[in-house]
Amino acid sequence: MKNFSGKVLFLDRNDINTDEIIPAKYLSEISKQALRPYLLEDIKIDGFMPRTDIQEKSVIITKTNFGCGSSREHAAWALEVNNINLVIAESFARIFRQNMFNCGMMAVELPAKTIDRIFRDFAGKETYLETNLKKNIFIITANEHHLEVSFSISDFDRALVMTGGWVEYADSKY
Amino acid sequence: MGKTIAEKIFDAHHVDNPAEDIHVIRLDAVFCHEITTPMAINDLVSRNKDHVFDPDKIKAVIDHVTPAKDSKTAEQGKILRDWARRHNILDFFDIGRNGICHALFPEKGFVYPGFTVIMGDSHTCTHGAFGAFAAGVGTTDLEVGILKGVCAFHYPSTIKIDISGQMSEGVFAKDVILSVIGRLGVNGATNKVLEFTGSIVDAMTMESRMTLCNMAVEAGATSGICFPDMTTVEYLWEFIKNEYSDKKEALDDFNRFLSDADARYDQVIEHDVSRLEPLVTFGYKPDQVKPVKEMEAIKVDQVYIGSCTNGRIEDLRVAAHELKGQKISNSVRGIVSPATPKIYRQAMEEGILKIFLDAGFCITNPTCGACLGMSNGVLAQGEVCASTTNRNFNGRMGKGGMVHLVSPATAAATAIAGYITNSKLFKG
């Protein structure tokens, strides 16, 4: 199973598309590792510096409809090779969300109120998120702030995370 | 309680229910192109699972970057080509016979009503025009599709868009779908199927229905879908004439998939297009749409006519009608990409290519090309393109470029004027 805990990267925007996560010009790469330097290269967020801001981050927290647009799984892979296996958002585009679980990664939805609270209390601060998959809680900390948030994922998604993805799961069953 | 067309297709393809609301369905077709498939092939090889579930149900094409532009894209083509050969995938379309997947595969008769189709390409929803459930997926879903012929989805929940009214001349399927996306928003249909019905859809050609369904994903939808009817039967007849005694029999067979009158919908939206004007996008999201006349001052550097959205013969005809006897502005680079070799040939025989050439357009081979800024027609920093494609995302056609999505008629008129403007066809 992959690691789902670590420092948090906040992306304060809706509708971040997969062209922004990994531009099409890098789709000619045929190794996941080759995508590593280009994650979020074309994202439009004021003041965001992809190369430095991504450093050492392992979790993304963002707003609505993350991963919309192109079906490219390269978006999930570009996160994976940067050691980001967990994205938490108010909502996801279907294909991106499925791609994450298919790779044994997690795309977890939280209610708008919770996302807003997390942004209000933690964005801009050095924040650490710990995932407890047994209890289904995220423990978020930054200096004086501490927040526990419960989440849910379906049994099917959990099975994909546990088995390492859809290929192994499907091959053993169908 | 009745069923929707998508539910009926799911029920007819049911394989498993691994969890509540997750349905594994059997696939009638798995489509592959050279950008998202090679990583699936390599992964299957590395897992010692280099098999295909059924070579006849797998169709493959090199379309995104063709001819190959560099060693990397040449390698992607080679991986797909070698794989198709070693697995005896006969419907593999290489250079000279290749075209944009979502224009080429329907043209070859690979999609029938009631089919389930996946491809590692978000615009796979295009094939819903034939009354199929067709969904874009990532590489892992594609990989499992190739290996096992199955894919997992949530049981379909459907938004019905009933499109009616009297559409003005000069307003096209592209304007209709932009208006629908503008209304729903870019995630208004996430995890839903968009079922397009109503008198406007009934009157549409298959090409227009493909334009309509193509952009369903831009509202977040899993698939767009139109009911099969006599227009569908006529389009497919050359491929199915040995299976049915006459067209009526084919239609009766396809009609079993039609949504029931008492089917349950997530939402039913009445979408009257009587007052609809030609539309254009602004900003970086396809739901940001305005009437063309409100954007008239916007100068463009490039006009692109092509793609899986609007690179079909009727699109080229409309653009040629506007361009006939005209020259495009000196400040505009015009690029047209007929979507398939058949369309290219038709356009040649109908004199359409000559009109484009005379007007000052560059004609490329069939390819996805400029749409995703991956091969030709890439924009420079700060440049503006009026494009018949499907995405105006930041950087989509080149870093720092701006894309305005329009219909082929608007694109042609814009090329002539040098700024975004309505076609002569629109008298509003």
Question: Overview of this structure, please?
Answer:
The complex is a heterodimer of chains A (174) and B (428). Chain A is an alpha/beta fold. In chain A, 30% of the residues lie in helices and 21% in strands. Chain A has seven helices and seven strands; from the N terminus they run βααβαβαβαβββαα. The mean pLDDT of chain A is 96. In chain B, helix 9 (230-240) crosses helix 10 (247-254). In chain B, strands 5-4-3-6-7 form a five-stranded parallel sheet. Chain B has a five-stranded parallel sheet with strand order 17-16-15-18-19. A four-stranded parallel sheet of chain B has the order 11-10-9-12, with helices on both faces. In chain B, helix 3 links the parallel strand 4 (58-61) and strand 5 (92-93). At the A-B interface, helix 4, helix 6 and helix 7 of A face strand 1, helix 2, helix 3 and helix 5 of B.
